Amino acid sequence: MTTSDGYDHLGEPESALIRGWLEDVDPKNGTARLNTLMDHSVPLRFDAALRKDMLRLESSHVRVDGRGWISDEDEWVVINIDKIVPTSSEVRTVEEILNDPNPKLFDPDTVVTASEPFDVDEFLRTIYEGRGREWGKQ
């Protein structure tokens, strides 16, 4: 997708790599919105080649690769999508994440360190211990 459709006053489009929840997919007009959990959602445009993927991924958390324009307020005005992929096989809504009784949060008090250089077993054990799991057990 290479058209500017009136965004020339914003200069050249910037490379975009952004994640969020895909919403309001309109296959007829080739538009959608990406909810980034920030103060606004990002308008998206896509061509017919992405229509099926856009409909399939609606309401999913996705990664969007493309090109777009940034406003004077440092917000995306619109992004033309080149590629869209799901970020996880576990589909969760914004409400499910906000209301999760056991959220996945970084806890600096449980940081586990490893000495350098380290071997693969020590690396894997460190990851398991950091997640509160015993190394070697599934």
Can you characterise this structure?
The protein has two domains: 8-95, OB fold (Dihydrolipoamide Acetyltransferase, E2P) (Beta Barrel), CATH 2.40.50.140; 106-138, no CATH class. The chain has 138 residues and is an alpha+beta fold. Strands 1-2-3-5-4 form a five-stranded mixed beta barrel. The model has no long low-confidence stretch (mean pLDDT 80). The protein contains three helices and five strands. It starts with 13 loop residues before the first strand and ends in an 8-residue tail after the last helix. The protein has helices spanning 51-57, 94-98, 120-130, and strands at residues 14-26, 31-35, 41-45, 61-70, 76-86.
Condensed summary:
This protein has helices at 51-57, 94-98, 120-130; strands at residues 14-26, 31-35, 41-45, 61-70, 76-86. It is of the alpha+beta class. Strands 1-2-3-5-4 form a five-stranded mixed β-barrel.
